[in-house]
Specification:
125 residues, mainly alpha, 2 domains, 4 helices, 61% helix
Length: 125
């Protein structure tokens, strides 16, 4: 099972508490569910999770939703069409999250050949 860092769990808890305070009940409820089901790891623990892992996991979640929706309507569509839809939706979803977080590369991906570790240095303002 995938894990999140303890720091990220604390962020989820803070976001949940803020959502409760602001009356965003749906957000607070969904964050509470995620907090309850998320296993954690220490921030310093070694962890590898690349783009293909993320894509596979998102697609699996979308397949779960597709089966639920088809069962709800009592009819099933052609699985090849559903696969195409899921691949597109997963890509769109991941790109939207990437945009929202201002990310370029996943935090746990292995470095590509020739990639050097870059250390950001900020001077006091």
């Amino acid at each position: 099972m995938r894990t999140i860092t303890k720091s990220n769990l604390k962020r989820l808890i803070a976001q949940r508490d803020e959502a409760k305070l602001l009356g965003f009940d749906k957000v607070a409820s969904n964050l509470t569910e995620q907090i309850g089901t998320s296993n954690t790891r220490d921030d310093a623990d070694a962890y590898q999770y690349d783009y293909s892992d993320l894509k596979k996991e998102v697609q699996s979640s979308l397949w779960d939703a597709a089966v639920r929706a088809q069962d709800f309507y009592g009819k099933f569509a052609d699985a090849r069409g559903i696969q195409d839809l899921i691949e597109k939706q997963a890509e769109d979803f991941i790109n939207s999250i990437k945009h929202e977080t201002g990310s370029v590369v996943g935090a746990y991906e292995s470095p590509v050949p020739g990639e050097e570790e870059v250390i950001e240095v900020r001077e006091n303002e």
